[in-house]
Amino acid sequence: MKLLNQLEARLHELHEQSLIRVRKTVETPCGPRVTVDGRPMLAFCSNDYLGLAGHPAVVAALQEGAERYGAGSGASHLISGHTSAHVALEERLAAFVGPYLVEPRALSFCTGYMANLAVITGLANVDKDTAIFSEALNHASLIDGARLARTTVKVYPHADLEALAALLEQSTAANKIVVTDSVFSMDGDLAPLPALLALCERHEAWLVVDDAHGFGTLGENGRGALAHFKLRSPNLVYMGTLGKAAGVGGAFVAAHKTVIETLIQRARPYIFTTAAPPALAHALLTSLDLIAGEEGDRRRGQLHALVAQWRDGLRLRRWQPLASDTAIQPVVIGRNDETMRVAAALYEQGLWVGGIRPPTVPADTARLRVTFSAAHTATEVAQLIAALNQLENT
Length: 394
Ligand code: PMP
Fold this sequence. Notes:
Blueprint: H1 2-16, E1 33-36, E2 39-43, H2 56-69, H3 77-81, H4 84-97, E3 104-109, H5 112-124, E4 130-135, H6 140-148, E5 152-156, H7 161-170, E6 175-181, H8 193-202, E7 205-210, H9 225-229, E8 236-241, E9 251-256, H10 257-266, H11 268-271, H12 278-292, H13 294-313, E10 320-321, E11 328-334, H14 336-348, E12 351-352, E13 354-356, E14 366-371, H15 378-392
Parallel strand pairs: 2-12, 4-5, 4-6, 6-7, 7-8
Antiparallel strand pairs: 1-2, 3-9, 8-9, 10-11, 11-14, 13-14
Helix pairs in contact: 2-12, 4-12, 5-6, 5-10, 12-13, 13-15
4'-deoxy-4'-aminopyridoxal-5'-phosphate binds near residues 111, 116, 141, 185 and 251.
């Protein structure tokens, strides 16, 4: 009982600090209008930025994929789980983001979390004398990848290129790896990728870019952050996720073919896990068609119009909307309990917005993380703006 008592005591502390997380149960397909625990809600908290998760063509492709390949892959990629659906997906992804890389190849993963663990450990393990330089607001999966690499990790302050330059200058490591989100997941702003890449090239360092929130939404045809900034370099290692704008699930790494071959041979999060169901890869081919085509352009246009409407319409004095042009539009409230009270008040009105607390964000910066989707309407966004403007005054 002593062991359970310890756990109970820790959970009680989380309660006291307004840090207990509660999972809500969604009963309908992913989209802005969902039924949650029996109640109709308007959701502003998913990462389905283009509204593809419920797109009939993607759903039909998933069904077709299951008929063609079965429900599961049955094994890891290096045993017998690597199918023609995975091959087709990797070829399409390599062609899609290839213009920004040199001699590109792509490798698919079950999740972005695992892709990040694989990239960082895979690149770090080739040389004992490795240093990792990690941006302060990086996603947890990048932080965990750096920990798992069991080597020197230097954290540089958010968007502080001078601090990073000084750290790179001081480092004598033979293998230097700079790691950053492209779109910061809890702030919505963009990393200064052109200047970061110039620094990395000067110091012969890798630049690992996690484009979880940029792939599909940024750049020409939704090709992501590298396209947005028009970058190209052999130093770039690109990670994109496929469960957000692409609407399905999984992730991929694209880089020079030698990097990818290294990951296939050495990266444990790639090697020692069952390959994702091939039907997902098959459905993703349809998602990619939609992202890259006219429908993708139309959906990105709608998303940007909704974000502009939101930024124009907010009239807040105490709560602070962060500067962001992306689909991620956080409003910093500060205290954990106040943040959760505001989120609960919105929820009462049928508006579902995530309340984000430490350790996901720094102490005293608890916030609402509002996310928009091309599937929202202007009327729905106006409803959220009105509710929030009014709540700040009550
Ligand atoms: N990187 C970033 C920046 C993310 O926001 C996320 C997902 N929240 C991931 C990686 C992990 O991706 P996945 O959900 O596919 O594991």
